[in-house]
Design brief:
The complex is a heterodimer of chains A (301) and B (665).
Chain A lengths: L1 H24 L9 H10 L3 E4 L4 H20 L14 H21 L6 H30 L4 H7 L5 H21 L18 H4 L5 H27 L4 H25 L8 H22 L5
Helix pairs in contact in A: 1-9, 1-10, 2-9, 3-4, 3-9, 4-5, 5-7, 5-11, 7-9, 7-11, 9-10
Chain B lengths: L1 H20 L5 H24 L4 E6 L1 H4 L1 E6 L1 H24 L7 H23 L3 H19 L6 H32 L5 H9 L3 H15 L8 H7 L2 H23 L6 H25 L3 H29 L2 H36 L10 H4 L1 H14 L6 H17 L4 H33 L16 H19 L1 H13 L11 H35 L4 E4 L17 H4 L1 H6 L5 E6 L14 E6 L1 H18 L10 H20 L5
Antiparallel strand pairs in B: 1-2, 4-5
Helix pairs in contact in B: 1-2, 1-5, 2-4, 2-5, 4-5, 4-11, 4-14, 4-19, 5-6, 5-11, 6-7, 6-11, 7-8, 7-9, 7-10, 9-11, 10-11, 10-13, 11-13, 11-14, 12-13, 12-18, 13-14, 13-17, 13-18, 14-16, 14-17, 14-19, 14-20, 16-18, 16-19, 17-18, 17-19, 19-20, 20-21
The chains are: A mainly alpha (301), B mainly alpha (665).
């Protein structure tokens, strides 16, 4: 329950911090921290426009996408306290629920019969497919390291003691951050601020969404960032008491948002056909973590 | 309960006779009646077996066959129930699907007689535990299914695919025969129980591999899969549904059967099986992603699911080898449950794809589009099948894939580095398979059902008849029952598994009970997921009350003269994937370059095809060589009756001389 509230709280300012960091880095004053939330609320109040080729799939897709992110959020724990949903192997449920959301957001884009939206849909499907093994190898390694198989138990018993486990924790945080970037279609892969349909990934999929549906999609994006931020925080939280953990959580989230903002300010996006290579590199980093975990657990012969 | 076994073939015989007599328009119903009656009798046997009363009897089959054992044990029972369910939905769907052929009575009676034989032989394959008789039932099954495939026999392409299937099935029979004769020479018995003796005394690995090749050809493990992508598209859809749903699973049944007798080498075999299976899964789904013939896509997807089932079996074998019962239960259990699940959603997908084919007469998804408006029910059915086959909650595919994933996680707790690494890599492989199946099915669903019609069709498509829809609804209900009450199914599987291995009885570990309750809670969480969707949908409806809802043109980036041809195509959807893996999915293009000096270019043609890697790189080359060398023996078949008579005489003389000189006994 605690994680649920904290993730929502973090989601409220995460994207705001990213935008603020970017604007300050480029020498602008920039909008307030809660501007993204205000945008979404404005969208929720608006009417909608549908494409004439679309069917009920297009109407229901944003709702299912948002619900999938919402249910995935319930799985994520906060330090010692479980998420609302917790069982052995819950991270598989987490990944597959998000997968269902993605499935619907893709067919929602295909439903408009547009010449662009399929492009973004195919890229989204391809990139998330490539990112999948990184997540699973990483979770498998953490299961190997701790001997547990649910998010909460893994994070509760993940003690960062020796220098090698710190290295593993750092690498794992990197992988999760990059997965978050892929899931949200952020900078090294996709520029959310681009204005050319041919080079967009996520943005081009939602060209035809408007009003409440667009609001749902944007909110889901904010939540996703906060979810991955929470996972990264859990990597390091260990057994510290709530009095320290809650402020630390907010600081970690703010720091991650700052990092994302800095990456977006100072990096150029990759060439489209190099994205696949970049994502596959994540899997090899995960493999590194796996071999590190083998070493630590003394099973490396 | 022996009477029930006899009843099953008597019913089939009566149905065959009746089919010859009744008029064409009720042939389908007669067949349906026969299939249902047969299904009830054999399912009764199966349910008896599942409740603990094993039915078995032997009868004497003459000098050659010896005592033949027919036994319905729990493993057979599981497969018999799956066969019967899929055959029933198949026969009802098929009776709607073949309505258009009511005027060709001969073709119909042939088809339905074969269908009844097909069901009977499949059920008998599961019951017979005697090598030679098993081969006979196996052969009837292959032949009847081959004849079912070539229903559309005036099409030379269909005939060719049918013959391809026939040839490959006979290669499979060769391996099975070698296996059974091998056991016979070592133990002197054709009975399946002789495996136990054989495996107790000899090395396990080679015999298992011989059977694996034999059964793997049926199941479609790579590189033995190449009949599937030809036979499934060629067959009428209810036949492809049943073939993909169950006939392929009988290969899995065979592997399970032989694996249950294994005594040693489990570890090695498990590792081999897992490796082949992961590659099968990846290869299958990768090919499924690029093909534009939607039935071919589904056939490749079957190969992928066989890979997933194989991963389960491999985990189980590794569990046996390491004496870790939970691995055995999760692996084999996941495989058995996935056999059920795949038979459900794959037949569902083939039936709904068949409905599309019946209405549009094309299997090329690039020619379709926007069918969700004219065939909304079929579209929703296909969507449900697509979600389930991707292994996503809230449907049944997730339950079995989760079991297999759990097996892999439990496997990570093993102590051997090689095995742990293998488990983690399989984990990653399975996740890639999941990701690719999202890509494949969003592409297929999006192209066929969403957007607008890409090319004009000859007839306007309509929703199919309710005779075709109802079997599909029934399948969806069965799928939901697995998703909502996994406990029932898992307890049955637990019972099957505790009595499966012949060497030692492996008691059900406590962890498995824990996993069963986990699965039950997962189905609750899936329901929670559905409720969440419903709640947010309700909020959305409330929020939209009184707001303007306008319908306008799709965003065209300022271009207002768009046609349906500017839609994103299936080919381009999977193009970047195909390019990344172009060393596996081989693309061949045919086009003419613009020549120098061609100032006014004429209309050009551009075609591109994807080839099957193994077929293109290996099988084609081998068969070409074979045909080439077979040319040298053409003089034997010269068309002169005199020489044929001469061959006979030479043969008789040869036998005569050989027996006189006691060279052959």
């Amino acid at each position: 329950m605690l994680s649920f509230l904290l993730i929502i709280l973090a989601a409220a300012f995460f994207t705001g911090i990213i935008i603020r960091t970017k604007s300050i880095a480029s020498g602008r004053k920039g909008p307030g921290l809660f501007q993204p939330i205000k945008d979404v609320i404005r969208l929720f109040k608006k009417g909608t426009v549908y494409s004439e080729t679309s069917s009920f799939v297009f109407r229901i897709a944003p709702t299912i996408y948002f619900s999938s992110v919402f249910v995935a959020m319930l799985v994520v724990p906060f330090g010692q306290s479980k998420g609302l949903i917790s069982f052995n192997g819950d991270f598989i449920f987490f990944a597959y629920v998000l997968g269902l959301g993605k499935f619907f957001s893709i067919i929602g884009a295909m439903d408009t019969g547009s010449s662009f939206e399929g492009m973004g849909a195919s890229r989204e499907a391809l990139y998330s497919m490539f990112a999948e093994p990184a997540f699973f190898i990483l979770m498998g390694s953490l299961a190997l390291l701790t001997g547990h198989t649910s998010f909460q138990e893994i994070f509760a018993t993940l003690h960062l003691g020796s220098s090698i486990t710190y290295a593993l924790g750092g690498l794992a945080a990197l992988v999760f951050l990059m997965i978050a970037m892929i899931e949200n279609s952020r900078m090294p892969l996709d520029d959310p601020k681009t204005h050319l349909e041919l080079t967009m990934v996520h943005e081009v999929m939602i060209l035809d969404n408007s009003g409440f549906d667009l609001g749902l999609i944007l909110t889901a994006g904010y939540l996703k960032f906060a979810i991955y931020g929470a996972i990264i925080f859990n990597l390091f939280s260990g057994t510290i008491s709530y009095g320290y953990a809650i402020p630390m959580f907010l600081v970690v989230q703010a720091f991650l948002a700052f990092v994302v903002g800095m990456i977006e300010s100072f990096m150029a996006r990759f060439r489209m056909n190099h994205n696949a290579q970049f994502i596959v590199v994540l899997s090899s980093v995960s493999l590194l973590i796996f071999f590190g975990a083998l070493l630590v657990s003394g099973k490396f012969i | 309960m022996v009477e029930l076994i006899n009843l099953s073939w008597i019913i089939a015989l009566l149905a065959v006779i009746a089919l010859l007599l009744v008029p064409a328009n009720i042939k389908a119903y007669t067949a349906a009646f026969g299939v249902v009656a047969n299904a009830i009798t054999t399912s009764w046997l199966a349910i008896l077996a599942l409740t603990g009363q094993l039915v078995s009897f032997t009868f004497y089959g003459g000098n050659i066959m010896g005592d033949m054992l027919i036994r319905v044990d729990q493993l057979s029972a599981w497969f018999i129930l799956i066969i019967n369910f899929t055959c029933i939905t198949g026969v009802f769907y098929g009776s709607g699907y073949l309505k258009a052929y009511d005027n060709s009575a001969k073709k119909l009676s042939m088809h339905w007689i074969l269908f009844i034989l097909f069901q009977l032989s499949m059920v008998w394959v599961c019951m017979i535990q005697h090598g030679l008789m098993f081969l006979i039932a196996w052969e009837i099954m292959s032949l009847s299914s081959m004849m079912l495939v070539i229903f559309d026999s005036h099409n030379p392409k269909t005939l060719k695919d049918g013959i391809n299937y026939l040839v490959q099935m006979h290669i499979s029979v060769v391996f099975l025969t070698i296996g059974f004769i091998w056991v016979y020479f070592q133990t002197g018995s054709f009975s399946f129980d002789a495996f136990s003796t054989y495996f107790g005394l000899n090395s396990n690995i080679w015999l298992f591999l011989v059977f694996f090749v034999g059964f793997g050809l049926k199941a479609g493990f790579i590189p033995l899969h190449s009949w599937l992508p030809h036979a499934h598209p060629a067959a009428p859809s209810h036949v492809s549904g049943v073939m993909s749903g169950v006939i392929v699973k009988l290969g899995i049944y065979g592997i399970f059967r032989v694996a249950s007798y294994l005594r040693s080498d489990n570890l090695m075999l498990g590792e081999i099986l897992i490796t082949i299976s992961v590659l099968t899964g990846l290869y299958g789904i990768l090919n499924a992603a690029v093909h534009r013939d939607f039935k071919k896509m589904l056939a490749y997807c079957t190969i992928e699911n066989i890979g997933i089932i194989g991963i389960g079996i491999g985990i189980g074998l590794i569990g046996l080898g390491n004496h870790v019962p939970i691995l055995y239960y999760l692996g084999f259990g996941g495989a058995l449950l996935h056999v059920l699940n795949h038979s459900l959603f794959k037949s569902l997908l083939f039936y709904s794809a068949g409905s599309v084919y019946q209405q549009t007469h094309t299997r090329d998804m690039e020619k379709l589009g926007g069918l969700i408006k004219s065939m909304p029910r079929t579209a929703v059915i296909f969507l449900i099948g697509a979600i389930a086959i991707g292994g996503m909650p809230p449907f049944n595919g997730f339950i079995s894939e989760f079991l297999i994933y759990s097996g892999l996680i439990e496997g990570i707790k093993l102590h051997d580095m090689t095995q742990i690494t293998m488990m983690v890599l399989t984990f990653a492989g399975l996740s890639i398979i999941g990701g690719l199946s999202v890509l494949t099915f969003t592409k297929t669903f999006g192209t066929i059902f969403l957007g607008t019609q890409r090319q004009p069709l000859q007839h306007k498509p309509h929703e199919v008849s309710s005779l075709m829809l109802i079997p599909q609804y029934v399948i969806i209900v069965a799928m939901l029952s697995v998703a909502i009450f996994p406990r029932i199914y898992l307890e049955v599987i637990g019972n099957i598994l505790s009595g499966l291995t012949k060497s030692t009885i492996i008691p059900q570990p406590v962890e498995f009970a824990g996993y069963i309750s986990t699965m039950q809670s997962i189905s609750l969480y899936s329901l929670l997921f559905i409720c969440t969707i419903a709640v947010f949908w309700g909020i959305r409806m409330l929020a939209l009350v009184g707001k303007s809802q306008v319908v306008g043109a799709t965003w065209g980036c300022g271009y207002t003269a768009g046609t349906s041809k500017i839609q994103y195509t299936a080919k381009s959807f999977s193009k970047s994937l195909g390019k990344t893996f172009d060393f596996i999915v081989i693309e061949r293009k045919q086009y003419e370059e613009l020549k120098a000096g061609e100032i006014f270019p004429k209309e050009k043609k551009y075609t591109s095809h994807y080839h099957d890697f193994f077929e293109f790189r290996f099988i084609r080359i081998i068969t070409n060589r074979l045909i080439y060398s077979a040319n040298y023996f053409k003089f034997i078949q010269n068309g002169r009756i005199q020489s044929y008579v001469l061959y006979g005489i030479v043969f008789i003389i040869a036998i005569f001389i050989l027996t006189i000189f006691k060279i052959v006994p």
